[in-house]
């Protein structure tokens, strides 16, 4: 359950959608350059190649089902995001795992943890 305001949720969703779009477009180098990542470009490529089904954007009617959970820290506002990835046949077995932090200047910054097979 998301306990923050709608504007915060929308900013987190927008950031996750951008990463999803970059994954779909195969911009793996851009992803690891633009975001802090615990996985490499090769890891991303291998995971998506192993899965071997083309990804599609998450349907708009599924956005409300995205899991966003506030992480309790003393330093910054951070949320854990589990973003299910989709194929033409529906929800895939892959989930993009992110932490999103609101910086002191108001920017939202993503940290890509993994692409996990559920």
Describe the structure.
This protein has 118 residues and is α+β, with helices and mostly antiparallel strands. It has helices at residues 6-24, 28-34, 41-51; strands at 36-37, 67-71, 77-87, 90-102, 108-117. It has one domain (6-117): Nuclear Transport Factor 2, Chain: A. Helix content is 31%, strand content 35%. A five-stranded mixed sheet has the order 1-5-4-3-2, with helices on one face. Helix 2 (28-34) crosses helix 3. The mean pLDDT is 91.
Sequence-ordered SSE layout with sheet pairings:
Layout: H1 6-24, H2 28-34, E1 36-37, H3 41-51, E2 67-71, E3 77-87, E4 90-102, E5 108-117
Parallel strand pairs: 1-5
Antiparallel strand pairs: 2-3, 3-4, 4-5
Which key features would you list for this structure?
5-stranded mixed sheet; globular; 118 residues; alpha+beta; Nuclear Transport Factor 2, Chain: A
Count of helical segments? 3
Tell me what portion of residues adopts beta-strand conformation.
25-35%
Structural class: alpha+beta
Distance between the termini: 20 Å
The main sheet comes to: 5 strands, mixed
Helix content: 25-40%
Helix-strand topology string: HHEHEEEE
Question: What is the 3D form?
Answer: globular
């Amino acid at each position: 359950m998301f306990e923050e305001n709608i504007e915060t949720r929308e900013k987190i969703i927008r950031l996750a959608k951008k990463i999803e779009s970059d994954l779909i477009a195969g911009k793996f180098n851009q992803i690891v350059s633009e975001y802090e990542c615990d996985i490499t470009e090769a890891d991303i490529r291998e995971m998506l190649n192993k899965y071997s089904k083309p990804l599609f954007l998450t349907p708009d009617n599924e956005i409300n089902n995205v899991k966003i959970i506030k992480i309790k820290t003393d330093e910054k506002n951070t949320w854990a995001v589990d973003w299910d990835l989709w194929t033409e046949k529906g929800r895939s077995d892959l989930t993009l795992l992110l932490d999103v932090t609101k910086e002191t200047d108001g920017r939202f910054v993503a940290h890509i943890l993994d692409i996990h097979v559920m």
